[in-house]
Amino acid sequence: MSRKEILRGVYEENRRIKEKGTTGARRGGYPRRLGAGGVAIVVVLVVVAGLVFWHDASRRMDADSTVAPTSPDARFEMAIPDDPMLRELELPAGTSLEELTSSAVPMADLFDLGVRTIVIDAGHGGVDGGAESVAGLKEKEITLDVASRLARRLQRYGVYDVLMTREADSTLSLRERVEYANSKEADIFVSIHVNWFPSDSVYALETYYFGGQADTLTLQLAERENRNSDYTVAEFNRLMSGMSDRIKGEESRRLALAVQRSMIRNTRRETGPVQNWGIKSGPFVVLVGTDAPGILAEIGVISNGPEAARLATVEYRERLALYLEEGIINYLNQMASSE
């Protein structure tokens, strides 16, 4: 029996247990407590874990298969773009693109998990203007506008509760953003930011998910984005100690990859050459503290002259919101593809 068949068996058994115990229940977010059905699921998973250890067969699915979208725009796709540059993603050491995107059955699917609540975080705000262009355009203005547009686009589906950490130019600590997302029991968390580099010639996009390992540049960026966190050392250590949740880690990587693909593919069509700096792990407070899988997306470069000029227009911001929407919906379609 292959590993894929074993994992598929666990998935079907978990669905059977769930349907027996909660007939007619709405498919919702990530579980926070285990009832009798949950205990049964854990028992099944433990048994199968032993089987999987002895049956380490191939578990890859066809990475180029297309998932039919349910988008109002009816044009989103789950296929890996044929642009070879999109395969130049920075992945965890020893992890291939196929392993990241094509496990036999994702952990979320094993427990038939879904997404009900999406929290969008517009980076910076109020006294914290974030990065700034030569012309005086502030990061906080761009992130709020794009976040608002993204929220409206996602609300059109009528199946998600889409919330924003801030809806005005208000000062909000990172602690307050984390506590808001957790209080709303967010299923996914998307933090929107705009990058800045010392050289105005740099034009690159990147998407972050939480991880313990990071390069020097990522640590420097995290230091900047983590200002005004309002956490003590002891509190932050407690947050770090809770990061062993495998589902959160796996789903965060999948969401980051889907968003990065969409941003790169569409931005290259829109603006021409843009460097693909891929997906990276980084110790950002908003990703550490939130219970839900989450990402921090750097959607533009405000220090680049031509890009800053585009970021100042409402038309370009609307298109950036569309690109983010495409990535999120592709991720959600991927979650539902095994049904």
Strand order of the largest sheet: 2-1-3-6-4-5
**Fraction of residues in β-strands:** 5-15%
Summarize the main sheet. 6 strands, mixed
Shape: globular
From the 3D coordinates, which CATH architecture of the largest domain would you assign? 3-Layer(aba) Sandwich
- Secondary-structure-based class equals alpha/beta
Broad CATH class of the largest domain: Alpha Beta
Please explain how this structure is put together:
This protein is an alpha/beta fold and 339 residues long. Helices cover 45% and strands 12% of the residues. The protein has twelve helices and six strands. The protein has helices at residues 3-21, 36-54, 97-101, 107-110, 139-155, 174-183, 216-225, 233-241, 246-271, 285-289, 305-311, 314-336; strands at 117-122, 161-164, 188-195, 204-209, 275-281, 294-301. It has a six-stranded mixed beta sheet. It is globular, with a radius of gyration of 20 Å. Residues 22-92 and 95-105 have low confidence and may be disordered.
How is the topology of this model organized?
Elements: H1 3-21, H2 36-54, H3 97-101, H4 107-110, E1 117-122, H5 139-155, E2 161-164, H6 174-183, E3 188-195, E4 204-209, H7 216-225, H8 233-241, H9 246-271, E5 275-281, H10 285-289, E6 294-301, H11 305-311, H12 314-336
Parallel strand pairs: 1-2, 1-3, 3-6, 4-5
Antiparallel strand pairs: 4-6
Question: What would a concise description of this structure say?
Answer:
This protein is an alpha/beta fold and 339 residues long. It is built from twelve helices and six strands. The chain has two domains: 52 residues, no CATH class; 253 residues, 3-Layer(aba) Sandwich (Aminopeptidase).
